[in-house]
Design a protein that fits this description.
InterPro entries: LRR_dom_sf. By secondary structure, the protein is an alpha/beta fold. The protein folds into two domains: 247 residues, Leucine-rich repeat, LRR (right-handed beta-alpha superhelix); 158 residues, no CATH class. The chain contains 15 helices and 17 strands. The strands form two sheets. It has a 15-stranded mixed beta sheet with strand order 1-2-3-4-5-6-7-8-10-12-13-14-15-16-17, with helices on one face. A two-stranded parallel sheet has the order 9-11. Strand 2, helix 2 and strand 3 form a beta-alpha-beta unit. Helix 4 runs parallel beside helix 5. It is elongated, with a radius of gyration of 27 Å.
Length: 461
């Protein structure tokens, strides 16, 4: 079936303009099926057809690489158990001599035999391997960390983007330490205290602009362990702690260490951390924030309005759903302390005056019943929390007060004129509030999920 498709592509008049192609190891695969296409290919993506190890024909690979005169990007999405197929591809690249033109390489699972071939290409006297983009989904158990460090050291000036999602290396090889990489602009990596030494961004990556960190579910990020004691890193503008990696008690330290953040992804579990976040990075443009049920009265935290007033408004909306609620009703409910041009009384989401994109999402993994989360929350028991309110103080139900309501919509989002995209996968917004935001703001994208409804922009015709 794949051969028939390739013959069809080769016969079309636009075939020479084909720059990317995805291949599967079908028996009988040969380059004659798409001879006209090969010289124009810039990217080849090798995939496996099934869990069975089906090898790409050796002659096919050699002919393919020899004739791919514009090729500069190779993706190998082949599982850990099919390592021989990956070896054959890399050997064919080496034999063809085209590796000196290769700038982007993606290998799903990097094994020792694969890394040995890459090291040979680096040591060639003529036409060495120089990568600007290198991505692996996992470093296999048989790879010595020292050897992987040595390979990265050979590419320290060339590599601009580096992705190391998982480190499966055996503990017998010791922890992995990133070498100094002055060319690196973007780094994606798994953050495991057992396998990766402290990052020390300013020392190891002096020109880093984007840092994406991954962790196991509810893994606690330690600022002191990873960054404390280092100089300020002014080049970093994008910082993302992917969902599951919890930042606890480190916001102020991060803001001081990375003062120029414009794009941020964060998971918080305490009010103290959320308040610190709202007082940091005033030049923020893109914010993706995840929170758990430990952050109650989120309307108060996001708007800066007193918690008591926010809770009363939410309860009145819930108990009087037939009334025509809107901005005027909410202002009156706030006992006249605010007018249509209200000035918020405390730190709020509106501190981000340049915010263009906002994603707020409740994450069930950050529930206070989770042992890992509960342990961190206990460390904040003695913190002086402003706007704290408990069920005993007001006779109201607070089981949903961790979800933003119309209060946040009207008194935070509606007043943020720079916002262009809003994504709330779970909220308590009324349809009226959603429509008000859509009509009064210059939004180009939105999603409000409330009361089993999903309000999104209409599809373009």
């Amino acid at each position: 079936m794949a051969i028939t498709f390739l013959k069809f592509v080769a016969d079309t008049s636009k075939a020479p303009f084909l720059k990317r192609i995805v291949l599967f190891p079908f028996p009988g695969l040969d380059t004659a099926s798409f001879t006209k296409v090969i010289p124009y290919l810039e990217r080849i993506h090798f995939k496996e057809w099934s869990s069975k190890e089906l090898l790409y024909p050796h002659n096919f690979l050699e002919n393919l690489f020899e004739k791919s005169i514009r090729l500069h990007e190779i993706w190998i999405s082949i599982g850990l158990e099919n390592c021989k197929s990956v070896e054959n591809i890399l050997i064919a690249v080496a034999t063809s001599g085209r590796y000196s033109f290769l700038t982007k390489l993606h290998i799903a699972y990097l094994r020792l035999s694969h890394l040995e071939i890459l090291m040979e290409l680096v040591l060639q006297r003529q036409g060495r391997l120089r990568l600007s983009y290198f991505r692996i989904e996992a470093l296999a158990h048989d790879v010595p960390t020292s050897m992987f460090e040595a390979f990265l050291r050979t590419q320290s000036v060339n590599i601009k983007e580096l992705y190391c999602r998982r480190f499966l290396g055996s503990s017998k090889f010791g922890k992995f330490t990133f070498p100094r990489m002055i060319g690196l602009r973007k780094l994606d990596c798994e953050l495991s205290a057992r396998q990766v030494m402290p990052l020390k961004c300013n020392l190891r990556f002096p020109n880093l602009q984007s840092l994406n960190l991954f962790g196991t579910c509810c893994q606690i990020f330690s600022f002191d362990q990873q960054f404390s004691g280092n100089k300020v890193s002014e080049s970093l503008t994008s910082l993302h702690f992917r969902p599951g990696l919890i930042v606890a008690g480190s916001i102020a330290g991060l803001a001081a260490h990375f003062p120029n953040i414009r794009s941020l992804t964060l998971s918080v579990i305490s009010k103290v951390d959320l308040k610190e976040l709202l007082q940091s990075w005033e030049m923020m443009e893109d914010l993706e924030l995840y929170f758990g049920d430990g952050i109650t009265n989120i309307d108060s935290l996001l708007t800066g309005l007193p918690a008591e007033q926010c809770v009363r408004v939410v309860e009145r909306i819930k108990s009087n759903k037939k009334l025509p609620f809107g901005l005027d009703f909410l202002i009156k409910t706030l006992d006249g302390m605010l007018d249509a041009n209200d000035k918020h009384v405390a730190v709020s989401l509106r501190n981000f005056k340049n915010l263009k994109t906002l994603h707020l999402e409740y994450n069930a993994f950050l529930m206070s019943r989770n042992p890992a989360v509960n342990e961190v929350e206990n460390n904040h028991d003695n913190d002086d929390e402003v706007n704290e309110i408990r069920p005993a103080d007001l006779e109201v139900e607070l089981e949903e007060s961790y979800l933003p309501s119309d209060v946040t919509g009207y008194f935070a989002l509606a007043r943020m004129k720079s916002l262009r995209k809003i994504n709330l996968p779970e909220c308590l917004f009324s349809e009226e509030c959603c429509n008000y935001l859509i009509e009064s703001m210059e939004l180009v994208g939105w999603r409000f999920c409330a009361e089993a409804s999903d309000i999104v922009p209409p599809r373009k015709a």
